[in-house]
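Researcher: Next sequence.
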Amino acid sequence: MVTASFAATADRTTLLIPLSAEGVSSSETPAIGETGIGESEFASARYADQAMGQHADEGWRAYVRLWKNHSTNPANRAIRRFLGLPLQESFTWSARRGRSSPRFLRWAAGSYAQIDTPHFVVYSRAGEEPSRRVVEDLERCYWIWTQLFFPLWEGAPQVRAALANLDPGQPIEDFLQQSSSRITIQRKMRVVLFRDAEEYQQALSPDYPGVERSTGFYANDKQTIFLYSADVDDAATRRHELVHQLFREATRSGLGRSFPAEAEGFWLIEGIAGYFESVQLAERSASVGGWDCSRLQFARYRRLSLGDVMPMSDLIRDGRQAAQERSDIARWYAHAIAQTHRLMDSGNDDQRAWIYAQLARRYRIGLAPRFDLDDEAVLKDSEVALTEFLRVDDDRIRSNPIRRPLQQLVLAECPLHPETISQLPPSGLLRWLDLTRIPLENADVSRLVPDPSSVEQLRLEATKVDSGLTPWLRQTKRLTELDLSWTKIDDSVIAAVENQMGIATLYLTGTQVTDACIDGILKMRDLETVDLQRTAVTAAGLERIRTARPQLQLNPLQLVDSRE
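Model: Next structure:
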């Protein structure tokens, strides 16, 4: 369970990425608030070996130390040679006209590019720019994954052997200068990058029914990741599928051609891949996890606002096929990923070690006995613990400031003060904002989202906003859901949004609206649900709505009188 002491510590893991000799990782502009990590920041960050506490061995600690030295001295040739990095660039790739693609692609020679990197071979029909973006991200995420899951990585025994005699006080550069060791891999991993979604679907639908509902996947039978180029880069899907590939192909897995977790425990296969979607890249470092990652916004809403609970026993019970056949698969994914985040990042090293042990079991990877932990002890009170993990407080947010551009921000039902919200950076990308029951005022909302034109879901129930928010609401263009229940808004707010197409859900419960808002409500042709209980709208007004829009779901909330 999350404790008060955890609230003021890092809730994410810091990893280090390969740099050029000049200390640059790529030409891409870092996201909002991102900076490189300097020597003085090492002490405040939480690294993978530190997060594992007593379960981390000296080889893992030496490996993380190696990456820290690379970050502070990226030009050092001994470290670059050991890691297999080029002497100048952050990574290398070579592209040539492809002539021998895998048979299952049935691509004519010369119709695609074959791109080779140190750890991947990519067959691409996309252009040079999207291809480079993909291969660079694959290489960086590979190195991030090796630090995070060092005990499971195929290169771990090599690192342990090479650094076994490293003295704690000896500069690692000097030690490696006297050694010819370098990390090697068994074989490169295969990735296919299609030109676009249409080509992706046409090529794969005969063998993989339902592929049109995906934006990328790892094919266990072909041990290949399939992706396609798009205008908006889908890094989350790529990293999700990469994790499936890495646990199969960058470890000493004994699965062969079998699927992992066929009989039970498939939740963790998807949970750990969903967890890795939270990777956030900066100029010189990366992080995984964090209260502000996208997946946890959805989980927070499900758990804290809807009260949705899924016992761990339900998650653990299902194997691969049973999970994929669930009618509530989206809900299952949400809980699987949220519980994985909790077990990895709640500050309990036993829980984190248990995750590694379970992954080793599912993928049939040998792991040291120190990771053997009692299931019952680790999973006790999981549902209560998840609630506490998702209910972030002021200290947790202040200790873990946002360093990524957010599209979703859900803090509903969290014990937060306006002063904390005032420290969050403004965002021009938010599509979903839920600040239910936080005592915010109009100025707080407009500061946080200065341009609300991208907002689609807005929930400000039981906040201190009032009709002074009208000018801001008038700038919205894409609303599909608007909840202003139990606020002091009046009819002027409805006039501000009445001409918007797309609003399907409108909650005005307990507000100061009157019959004067009815004309505006009736203009909302896409409206499906509206709640006007505990307002000044009269019975005659409600009847007018029922007559004009008989299919509209009117006053669906089941209100309970607090006096009863």
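Model: DSSP finds 24 helices and 16 strands in the chain. Residues 4-386 form one domain.
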